[in-house]
Each structure stands twice: as C-alpha cells, then as structure tokens.
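Dear Dr. H.,

I hope your travels went smoothly. While you were away I took the liberty of generating a structure for the chain from your last submission, since the lab meeting agenda had it listed for discussion. I wanted you to have the full record in hand beforehand rather than looking at slides cold. The sequence, exactly as received, is reproduced here:
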Amino acid sequence: MHCPFCRYPDSRVIDSRSSDDGSSIRRRRECPECNQRFSTAETASLMVLKRSGVLEQFSREKIVNGVRKACQGRPVTDADLAVLAQKVEETIRATGTAQINAHEVGLAILEPLRQLDEVAFMRFASVYQGWETLEDFEAAISLLKIERETDKLTGIDLEPQI
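The corresponding predicted structure, in token form, is as follows:
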C-alpha cells in the first residue's frame, strides 16, 4: 500500500475494523517514512464470468441498469432498484464464491424482482429466459398465480404496491 502523502511503497497496519455488514474491512495505516496516518477500505472482489468467457467485476450498477429497463413505466423508484441490487449482491456473496456465472446472477435477480413488481418480473424473465411463445408466458403466469396463492397461505404479503 503506497502512502498517499509521500508515495512510500509500504505502510503498517495500526488498527483493523470490520464494517457493520461485514462486507469490508477498514484499516488504519501509518507510513514508516513520513509517519502520516491514513485509512483504507478493503473489500472482497466478486467476479462474474460472462457467456463470452470474459471475467468482469460484479457491479450493482449493471444490475440496476438491466432491471430498470424491465421496470420502465412501472411504479418502481431508484431506491427500490438499489435495494434490489443490494439483495442480489448479498445472495451471491452468501454463496461464498469469488467467481460466479452471469446466468446465476440473472437467477438471483428473479425472486427479488418478483417481490418488487410482478409485471417487471415478467418482462425481465421473458427476455432473460428467452420465452418465444404465448404458451411460455401462460405457463409463467400460471406459476406466478400459484406462488402468489402459496404466499397468501403462508402469510407472506407479496402483493405489488400500486
């Protein structure tokens, strides 16, 4: 870790603290050259393996942008999308892997999106899962109705707020 003051190529850790959510570590450091103190934040990197074979850093912003298209014209706020992206990231990080397939990221989006807005869910799922026929949509709507009834029976209120 280079010192931000004198650019000395080393520093020593004085204190380390975990963030409240456990996703990062804040370290207090001191430069042995100029004795200045500074803080760093360290997070575990999460890589996404795309279909093309390219590895890229996980990005909540990419989740928000992808889902925003499905939510166009729906009563979904930017704050709702930020919470959805956070839930997706938490789900993925809970797997404990440092690298995840892009398809699994899409699967992790489906349930929080269904809870947020069923119409947006149908839009996203139809593109993501490649529905091509009316029967594909009918089957998904039937499954959605069954899940809604199951949620009602178990006392979970997942009705979209319109």
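Two observations you may find useful: The radius of gyration is 21 Å. The first helix runs from residue 60 to 70.

With kind regards,
E. W.
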